[in-house]
Every structure is written in structure tokens, then in C-alpha cells.
Amino acid sequence: MPAPPDATPLICPLCERPIPPAQRDAHHLVPKSRGGRHTEFLHRVCHRQVHALLTETELARQYATVDALLAHPQIRAFVDWVKTKPDDFFVPTRKSARLRRR
């Protein structure tokens, strides 16, 4: 018997792994504080990594698409690493030193 349509797992557009409901975060591609409305569901660990590396201004001006995020070298390195982890993998994330100095 096939699964009901609403049981189709959401796929993280960054790491391309299924997102368990408990690990699902809505990410505003352009931050709400900068007028953004569109969201993409990301793994919580991917979402936190994006915000640990980039400011809201950078997100709004340079990284307002999934493709732009994936072009960022540190995001790409993280995604390549996290792709090998289980779907429910989570590790605490720290702000980058660059953002902590602000």
C-alpha cells in the first residue's frame, strides 16, 4: 500500500537529505528583517550553519537563493560533510569568529 501524499518527506535543498519533522526549520532566503517572505525548509543543522556563517545583510544581498548559498565555500564544505551523516544528525553550531567580533 503506497504512503499517503502528505507522508512524502521534505528534502533539504542544501544537503539533499530527507528532513525529519523534529529537525525541520523554515529559513527565510531574504531575512524577515530585510523584507523577506519566501521560506525554504532546511535541516536544523544546515539552517544554524547558514546563520553561523552569514549576517542578515549578507543573506539579503548576496545569498538569497539556495544556489548562492551553495556557492559560498564554507557552506559548500559543511554541506559536503553533513551529507554523509544520518538524516536526524545534529551538532551544536557556533557563530563564526568573524560574526562574533561584530
Automatic annotation (TrEMBL):
Transmembrane segments: none annotated. It comes from the Bacteria. Residues 12-52 form the HNH domain. It holds the Pfam family HNH. This is HNH domain-containing protein. The lineage of its organism: Bacteria, Pseudomonadati, Pseudomonadota, Betaproteobacteria, Burkholderiales.
